[in-house]
Design goal:
Layout (H helix, E strand, L loop, with lengths): L5 H10 L2 H17 L10 H11 L1 H16 L31 E4 L5 E3 L2 E5 L26 H11 L8 E6 L6 H12 L7 E5 L11 H11 L9 H12 L4 E8 L2 H4 L9 E7 L12 E4 L5 H12 L1 H6 L1 H11 L3 H12 L6 H9 L13 H13 L3 H12 L4 E2 L1 H8 L6 H10 L4 E2 L7 E2 L2 H14 L2 H26 L25 H10 L1 H13 L3 H10 L1 H7 L2 H17 L3 H17 L3 H17 L3 H17 L3 H17 L3 H17 L3 H17 L3 H17 L3 H18 L2 H17 L3 H15 L4 H20 L1 H15 L23
Parallel strand pairs: 1-3, 4-7, 4-8, 5-6, 6-7
Antiparallel strand pairs: 2-3, 9-11, 10-11
Length: 843
């Protein structure tokens, strides 16, 4: 169906009777659920409805049907502007935006007036935020697919086999290089129009040297594609959120290079209008429990292989050397990858006889023999033939890239790995892509990846040709590029945290300080590169580079604090802690203990966090590090607070405050005062909390820590609400919400609106409370189940209030409101870790 325009939606709203407005209200609620918080705005229904229609084809169809039915009904009265008499001509369309059912309809009119229960007001034109793009992630497919008509028909039959309770899971399995990915991508691209809500792709790296992708990593990528800015801490919660996000959508998921059924299960939506296509070298029979259908894929026959050669080389050239063409086909053994690589090599040399390639394939070397007979020899021969005709510098780059721990990479990383030989890397990459040894990805016009078999081939050549020191140097340079770039991001986002030195064997050739346009650009890079950075961290440990490992963990701090990938946060710090200890780096060990303890606490594991902070405290005292001692005490206080031990929390915060004041660390002292104010609030002492929080905010602003100053403002709003000063509380919380929005902190922005809703509830303003809770819920939806459940309880309480009456529900609401106000500390923001101000340091 074509897109639904603003004019159609506005016209339908103007003509809607009570029944049609009821349907419109339901559509608006559904639109808010579909959209990310930056776009959904119930106060502007036309914009919100149209944005949801751009995201979901199913919703677009329903909205279009409603609009058409509403405007076509001749029995509905036309809405006229003031001054129009009955029977004086057609109703005038009114542009701009609206809200439904008792809300405000803000339109481009001069005079305010009322039609039914829709109120019109003059309003200036405002720019509408762009709806997030519908994911279109399928990888490129061949224009024509030779020899797979039967397989395509089988996949079509699976799709049209009848009603399903859940998604169609189609598993295509077969040998490496047989053409599974090409078949599935070709089939899915032909079905894309039938699944308008999105097409998603993930390479699960089933046979990559660094190990397969974790389901939580893939879920995070998928959720971000739909505008979810953060993910829950556990796999079960993340999978549940994924099922909620995909409910009611018509989607395609392509899961490539799967190694086990366990990788796939958490990724499965529950909706029946979803196709999940899986490729794997294994049978994955365990997916039969999920109702999967299986289609093994065999080798191409000789006719199909000949058709590929004719497509790539031209029918005339193949017909001119039929014997040589048959030899090429025979040596490729029906393996699609081998046929395509051989064809690419011959196409790149139009003046060379096909017999040259046939003879090269006849001399096939014995590499990749670990891949079973029938597939390894043909691929090895074809790849060797392509490699032998590469220019020397491109051949050297090919081998070097094969030893890196990454299957895909940007050209900057490839250039860094080359070291002094970095000139002309772009040209050499182009040479590799020309003969299908590298392929571009959808991550950017210059982002490349290896097929896993080609990568194995390149690595095998490197191990034969290049000495071990050369190979290790290439890997070290690539990992140090990751460290330097992450450190540049850290310096922009958390300058107070960027204090520990970096030890480079190969200092960055190009400056990294200008790598990002700003802190949001830097944070976006960290989010996109999370998987690669974790691979680099593990590779550093495997290579014995412990200093690089803990320093990379330290540089990833903004990623953990802002985006909150809890599993990666904890794993990285376990790795980093062990590495720092092996390196005997005391400052690094203390940093790993305190930052890792913060991760454990924020992941809801306070008892483990107490253990980590306790170790940091003992280490700091043994080495006389007063600043780190105070940080450990502060972390212990937060962990005890979360664990429900407020007296112990106060004792630890007070000790930390005394040390910080003694050593003149004003920002740290302010953070301790902020935490003491939080504990006072939980203990029902709002007056004490106001005193601590007011001073904390002033000191944090003086230290240019605007983020933690906003935290103090939010808690001040809550304290004033507990004192009964509702107007002052509301001003504080609205200001805090704006400051958190500017900082990109979804957690605390949502928290501020939640606290504002509680203030409105205490002030007997149920409509305002409900709106604040609804806004908070939308913000929390990308955070995880506990927050969402709490907000749903708030909204249920508001409905109870409306149904039972204010006096009857008052006691219940007050009790729940106080509990939900947060007796436990909120997760740290970027200013949470106690780190000294920035000073001289290595890049």
């Amino acid at each position: 169906m074509e897109a639904v325009g603003r004019a159609e939606v506005e016209a339908a709203l103007l003509r809607a009777d009570a029944a049609a407005r009821t349907v419109a209200d339901e559509l608006l609620r559904e639109a808010v659920d579909l959209l990310p918080r930056e776009v959904a705005d119930p106060a502007d229904p036309v914009r919100t409805l149209c944005a949801a229609a751009a995201v979901s084809g199913t919703f677009r169809a329903r909205l279009g049907q409603w609009a058409a039915a509403t405007t076509a009904d001749p029995h509905r009265a036309a809405v006229r502007t003031p001054g129009d008499g009955a029977g004086r001509g057609p109703a005038r369309p009114v542009p701009h935006s609206n809200s439904i059912s008792g809300g405000d309809y803000r339109a481009g009119v001069v005079q305010a007036h009322t039609v039914g229960d829709i109120h019109w007001h003059a309003a200036p034109a405002a720019a509408s935020p762009q709806a997030p793009p519908v994911p279109r992630q399928l990888i490129p497919a061949p224009r024509r697919l030779a020899g797979r008509a039967r397989e395509l028909a089988d996949l079509d039959a699976m799709l049209h086999s009848g009603p399903r309770a859940g998604p169609l899971v189609a598993v295509v399995n077969g040998p490496a290089g047989v053409g599974k990915t090409a078949l599935v991508s070709y089939w899915l691209r032909g079905k894309a129009d039938d699944f308008p809500d999105g097409q998603l792709y993930a390479d699960l790296r089933g046979y990559a040297p660094e190990g397969p992708a974790e389901p939580s990593e893939v879920l995070g990528m998928f959720l971000r594609a739909f505008g979810v800015t953060a993910v829950p801490s556990g796999l079960a919660e993340t999978a549940a959120l994924w099922r909620s996000v995909t409910a009611g959508r018509r989607l395609i998921l392509m899961l490539d290079n799967v190694v086990s059924a366990a990788q796939v299960r958490p990724l499965l939506p529950a909706a029946p209008d979803v196709v999940v296509a899986v490729t794997s070298r294994r049978r994955l029979t365990g997916l039969g429990l999920e109702g999967a259908a299986f289609r093994p894929l065999g080798f191409l026959d000789a006719d199909a292989s000949a058709e590929i050669l004719r497509q790539r080389l031209g029918a005339g050239r193949v017909a001119a050397e039929p014997a040589a063409a048959r030899r090429v086909i025979d040596r490729c053994g029906g393996l699609a990858l081998a046929v395509c690589v051989a064809a690419a090599r011959m196409a790149a040399r139009p003046g060379q006889p096909l017999a040259v390639t046939a003879e090269a394939l006849d001399r096939g070397a014995e590499r990749l023999t670990v891949l079973r007979a029938g597939e390894g020899i043909a691929v090895q021969s074809a790849l060797d033939a392509s490699y032998r005709f590469l220019p020397e510098d491109a051949a050297a780059l090919y081998r070097l890239l094969g030893v890196l721990p990454f299957a895909d990479f940007p050209p900057e990383l490839a250039a860094a790995a080359c070291g002094p030989a970095r000139d002309g890397v772009g040209r050499r990459i182009d040479a590799l892509a020309e003969v299908s040894l590298l392929e571009q990805t959808d991550d950017g016009p210059e982002h490349y990846r290896f097929h896993d078999l080609v990568r194995l081939h390149a690595r095998g050549l490197a191990e034969t040709v290049d000495p071990l020191p050369v190979r290790r140097a290439a890997v070290r340079r690539a990992l140090e590029w990751c460290l330097a770039t992450a450190t540049a991001a850290e310096a922009l986002i958390l300058p107070s945290h960027r204090t520990l030195d970096r030890d480079y064997e190969y200092p960055p050739v190009t400056p990294t300080g200008d790598a990002f346009a700003g802190d949001q650009d830097a944070l976006g890079w960290l989010g996109r590169e999370q998987s690669r950075l974790m691979i680099a961290l593990r590779a550093a440990v495997d290579a014995g580079w412990d200093g690089l490992a803990w320093q990379l963990t330290d540089a990833m701090c903004p990623l953990f604090l802002r985006l909150r990938p809890y599993d990666a946060w904890v794993e990285a710090h376990r790795i980093g802690l062990d590495a720092a200890r092996r390196a005997a780096h005391v400052e690094g060990e203390m940093r790993m203990l305190t930052s890792g303890g913060t991760g454990l606490r924020n992941a809801g594991r306070p008892e483990e966090a107490v253990g980590w902070f306790g170790q940091a405290l003992g280490l700091a005292r043994r080495h006389g590090n007063r600043r780190m001692e105070a940080q450990a005490l502060h972390g212990l206080g937060q962990s005890h607070h979360l664990a429900g031990r407020p007296a112990e929390a106060v004792r630890r915060f007070t000790e930390a405050l005394a040390i910080r004041e003694e050593i003149g660390y004003a920002r740290g002292a302010a953070l301790s005062r902020l935490s003491l104010g939080d504990v006072a609030l939980s203990a029902g002492r709002p007056g004490d909390a106001v005193r601590e929080l007011s001073r904390a905010r002033a000191d944090l602003l003086a230290a240019s820590d605007t983020y933690d100053a906003a935290r103090a403002m939010a808690l001040l709003g809550r304290a004033h609400g507990e004192e009964g000063r509702a107007d002052l509380a509301g001003r504080c919380l609205r200001q805090a919400a704006e400051e958190f929005r500017a900082a990109g902190s979804v957690h605390w922005e949502a928290r501020s609106h939640e606290l504002l809703g509680l203030v409105h509830r205490r002030s007997d303003r149920p409509d305002d409370a409900r709106l604040a809770f609804e806004r908070s819920l939308r913000l929390y939806e990308g955070v995880g189940a506990p927050d969402v459940v709490r907000l749903e309880r708030h909204l249920e309480a508001e409905r109870h209030l409306e149904a039972e009456g204010h006096l009857e529900a008052e006691g219940h609401l007050e009790a729940e409101g106080h509990l939900a106000a947060g007796t436990a500390p909120m997760p740290d923001g970027p200013g949470g870790p106690d780190t000294p101000p920035p000073g001289p340091r290595a890049s």
